[in-house]
Amino acid sequence: MARVVALVEDEPAILENYTDALTREGYDVKAFLDARSALSWCRARLPDLAVLDIRLGNEAEAGFDLCRELRSLSSSLPIVFLTARDSDVDVVSGLRVGADDFVSKDTSLPHLLARIAALFRRVDALREPGKAAEVLDRGDLRLDQDRMQTTWKGHVIDLTVTEYWILHALARYPGHVKTRDQLMQEASVVVDDATITSHIKRVRRKFEAVDVDFDGIETVYGLGYRWTSV
Asked: Which domain holds residue 52?
């Protein structure tokens, strides 16, 4: 069965162009010109992945609002922003509301398709049966790949696909420093250093929400990050 991709873009010609490209890749594309109709459809049935523009119609940040709504429906739904707005502020804002990746419309179609395929590979890896290490225990941390569930001291931490793989990369080898490039490879995203930093900050905030003393992720200045709790 084809994977379902929800595509939200307010320019009909652009929407048609990306719909055709994704359809040729074998995806079942549900195309929407506005956030309201997209959210209504997604509430009835979640797609396998969502691709959102930020500005939709006269609403400058409708895509951010839609991302928040979709993230409230599912912590694991892969969400990609595809937009002409690619300033650092917009990228960070997109990550803060729960996006997994951020792609500029200047990016070539093959590159966009590769980014989407990479996210699906990460989802498949989480769900693939028979993995040698389906559950990773690191003291108070438990990463359950089969259920894509993260717990800390018994509390469930809702992480996006990208956040999960960044954390998994760190916790797999406690004490080992992972550079930002290595974390990008683990999470199958191609972003700048500041974006990885934003992901790390978001992961920390989620842990701190259930444990104010959380200090499991250490910043090694000039190098990267490491997991310190064993």
From this structure: 4-127
